[in-house]
Write a structure and sequence with these properties.
16% helix; 5-stranded mixed β-barrel
Length: 305
Amino acid sequence: MVHLLWLWLGLLLPVMLVACGSAGNQHALTAAPGTSPAAALPITAVATAVAPTATPSATTTASATAVATPAATHTPSQTPAPTFTPTLPATPTPSPTPTPSPTDTPLPTAVPILPLGQIPDHLEHDVTIMGRVIATASFSAGYKFTLSDDSGSVTLLMWHNVYDDCWDAPRLNLGATVRASGRVGQFGTEWQVVPRWGGDVKVTAVGELPPQQPIGTLGDFMGQRVTIVGQILRVEGTGNGAKLFVGDESGEILVFVWQSTLDRIRNNVVLGQPGTRVRVVGYVQEFRSNREIVPTLPFDVEVLP
């Protein structure tokens, strides 16, 4: 309220001053000639006219009453028209591929082993046999192994190419147990099983080497299979093989090796060098009054370090 009164007085005071000034001017117009307007005026008027207008004291400006800003009228937002979104066809989810339940893998059917006594009933048929080697022999085109079981015996005939292809050839000898597959044949009165390749012959158990004997005592072992160890003293070549003269501290003996067997002896090149140490397995026999040993298989002759 006080603020409003001061504001009203501030507006009214200039109006009153203008009115008084106008009245003084009118009196000055009626003053005697030759006198100044100030002389013609009353002292109070002159004082009023001459005195400088008092500078009004600083009026405290009333703090502007905060005019309440009308709250913005809430204009309801316009609901946008629904946009039509085409519905895409759902991508079909692939059905998981069912994992097949593991099934037992059928074991290969075991190949039946034909008893050797039944071989004559299977002429020109493929069979699988098993037996123990009781005899060995060589011929110009290959090797023969006589197999025996409780029911009979049969010849396992291996051509040179089949023998050379057989991984078990080093163990294939007297006393070994052999499992073989091949075609049944007959040569004279001899029944044979002939494998097609080396993998058809497997050695399941190896035989043992015969006891080693001093060369000087071999006269006591005529017709027997023995093992000797000695040095090559000299070599003589023949048209169908080689004569190796082998000796130790007790004596000397001739070892005759057929050419087909000589060609398959490991490291056979050094057999021609005197002093080469060898181990030889074979039967002690006589030929033209000369005692000798004739190895049957290539692995009956071994070059020693």
